[in-house]
Amino acid sequence: MPFLIAILVLVILALSARWTWWRPRVPGLKVLCYHKIGVPPPGSRLKELWVSPARFRAQVKYLLDHGYTTILFSDLKKAHAGKKPLPEKAVLITFDDGYENNYSLAWPILRELGAKGNIFVVYNTIGKANLWHNPASEPWVKMATLPQLLEMQDSGVIEYGSHTMNHVHLPALKLEDAAWEMAESKRQLEAAFGRELCAFAYPYGEGAYVPAVREKALEAGYLFDFSFRQGKTPWPWDRAAGPIDRLFIRGGDNNWDLALQLGRGASRL
């Protein structure tokens, strides 16, 4: 018996050293951040950005089975304006970049299960590839075409935000060039989709907490700006205090990781 107790203590300590189950729950807006749905291609060094279709389906089903309501940017806008309160267990599912696999794999799952999603699109790579990566270290994959993006929008399942014109490192640019990347992508994407875009996500998360860059994002006309920093942001949101943080879903995350993210704001230490 003492041996079994010792083993149990070691297991608990191991779990405590890696996962956050022992942390208190924290309040705030729940925004999940995905990238690619599918299997990483040979040579990929960014395998954590790929979530398998089976895991994605299980995670969306977990949300719905546990009373969460997936919402769109337009729902968040109405809540921010005081026109319609958020559901008690609201969650935003977001995807960065606009990959073709969002259309071929993620969208059908969302549509089948009755869930909603939001995609931050890089305008100049629509219908092309993830050109911001060096293909020698990260293979290029297809981006969604404009007809595919419009089909998803017309379904009522997907809405869009901007992810700049070229997926650039915003703080590394001259401020006027960074401002152009954010403002021009809003203009071009609104023309392409025929509706206003109220949301923006900083590529690589860079610039979200650089005051001069964030000022230009807000000047471009975005109501919401999203970081890539791990965590939840208090709601109602104080726009002046900073951008909205997100919960990054890694390729190896299971439903327990998802539950910890939703409750504790992080699953692993």
What do these coordinates show?
The strands form two sheets. Strands 1, 4, 5, 6, 7, 8, 9 and 10 form an eight-stranded parallel beta sheet that branches. This protein has a two-stranded parallel ribbon with strand order 2-3. The two termini are 31 Å apart. Helix 7 links the parallel strand 8 and strand 9. 37% of the residues lie in helices and 17% in strands. The chain is α/β, with parallel strands linked by helices and 269 residues long. The longest helix is centred in the C-terminal third of the chain and has 19 residues. It has one domain: TIM Barrel, CATH 3.20.20. The chain is globular. Helix 6 runs parallel beside helix 7.
Summarize the structure.
With 269 residues, the chain is α/β, with parallel strands linked by helices.
Task: Pick out its properties.
8-stranded parallel β-sheet; TIM Barrel; two-stranded parallel ribbon
